[in-house]
Amino acid sequence: MITASTHKNYCFMDVPYLPDGRQVYLYKQNNRHMKRFLIHISIAALAFCLLYSCKPEELKPVGDPFDKAELMVGTWDVTKVTQVDVDATLKGYPLYARELDITNVFPNNSYTDVSITLNSDQSFALVKGNAFVNWPVSGTWELNHPDHPSKLYLVSQFDTLSLNFSSFSDLMMSPAKLVVSETKKQKVDEEYIEVIYYNYEISKP
Question: Average of pLDDT values for 48-58?
Answer without folding.
Answer: 56
